[in-house]
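Hi R.,

Here's the chain you asked about this morning:
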Amino acid sequence: MKNTVIFLLAIMLSSSCKKIGVDDPKISFRSRNARIIGKWDVTEYYYYDGHLSGVNKSGDPAEYNIEINENGEWYIYEDDWSKGYYEGHWNWVSPSGSLGNKECFVLGRQGHPILWAESHILEELRDKKMRSRFNFDTSDPRRYYIYEWVAK
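And the predicted structure, written out as tokens:
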């Protein structure tokens, strides 16, 4: 019986608790889907242009809330969660190049005059904290934002 319990625990740890992001927890009994679903506050973001160029706390766009739903929808709200700014669909990016499974998610926006999508590479995804990297200039990988998120 003891060997069976140890065997089942080893299978659980090897399949659902893999560390994917640079600062992911070493062990988590929640899947990456379960950890990303929910309401998140963007507390601040950092702008890089080859080096740290600034920290924005002015409200554009660092002072917003995002809700990521299990059904593939997402919404951005004001601080009081009352008025929505944007909405759309999100999904995990398929593994390719240097990105593995569930290391990057895309926020696609609806109702925008041009096709718009934002790819966030996850550097950390915990139950209450997330850090993502958004490369806004595809021609220069040194230009990006780092977003700090906390679960609501």
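The longest strand covers residues 38-49.

Let me know if you need anything else.
M.
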